[in-house]
Amino acid sequence: MRLESRELALISILAALYVIIAALPGIPIIGGKGRIDLAASIAPVFGILLGPWKGGLTALVGVLLAWLLPPGTPSPHSAVFIPAPVISSLTTGFLTTRELKRLPSWIFASCIIGGLIVCWYLTWVGKSAPLYPIPHLVALFITIVVGNWLSGSIEGEYSSRVILKRSLIVPLVSYCGLMADHMYGNLAFITFAELFMPLKAIPLLPTIFMSVLPISVAERLLMTLIASIIGVPLITAYRIVMPQTKG
User: Fold this and answer.
1) 221 near 156, Cβ under 8 Å?
2) What is the distance, to the nearest Å, from the Cα of residue 179 to the centroid of all Cα atoms in its chain?
3) Helix-strand-coil percent breakdown of the chain, rounded to 5?
4) Per DSSP, which regions of the chain are E strands?
5) Between vectors from CA 213 to CA 33 and to CA 119, what angle results, nearest 5°?
6) Exposure string (b/e) for 54-91, b if CB count within 10 Å is 16 or more?
7) In this structure, is residue 247 part of a structural domain?
């Protein structure tokens, strides 16, 4: 992966944007505790914009800076979630790149989501809550069924037809990236559950996961909408200025 000076500048700008958005309070979750992480909503856009490697690098730089700088919380508790936005960017980058190592790149996106789902079922929580990954299986279905159509689909010159196509594709791709992010977060939480909750509550994890599933789905759909609202105009502007840059 070679980086030109203008690409380094763009990565720096986007990483800084991630840090700024991460400092915002987020959107309250109606019916649940916590807030929607706005920064996680733009991570899929990095992959679509720059491809898997440069997009993933941008997300990594952004999340590390957001973790280290105030109001971030640099601790082992939060460190386990650092890879989540990177995985999101990698997934969307693979989905919108035509080929990698002479293979259709959507295959790599499918492997990421599919591998995470398999890991879910290997956990004791996953065995007790087998229906939980339904939204993630939808994302896997998208990558397998229309992955070939999505590859390279956001390229093209400025026109109403291209923008309409992007308006359809960016939400699909962003959803896949955000569900990969979500499943990684679930697995990290299960693995290090003793860091986040009382030991006596850990046996209740399957019930907890299933009870919050509707809220999680609504949250991810809203994040997909945010990614689309930001992503479509940003990608369109970027393709006009730097039409051939991606990787």
Assistant:
1) no
2) 7
3) 75, 5, 25
4) 27-28, 35-36, 99-100, 103-104
5) 115
6) bbbbbbbbbbbebbeeeebeeeeeeebbebbbbbbbbb
7) no
Tens digits of residue pLDDT in 137-184: 999 999 999 988 888 666 655 667 777 888 899 999 999 999 999 999
What is the model's pTM? 0.91
Determine, yes or no, domain membership for 246: no
Bridge-partner residues for 123, per DSSP? none
* pLDDT tens column, 47-70: 999 999 999 999 999 999 999 998
Distance between CA atoms of residues 60 and 83, nearest Å: 7
SS3 106: helix
Q: Name the residue range of residue 168's domain.
A: 5-241
Asked if the structure places residue 145 within a domain, the reply is: yes
- Model pLDDT, residue 26: 73
Per the structure, the count of domains in the chain is 1
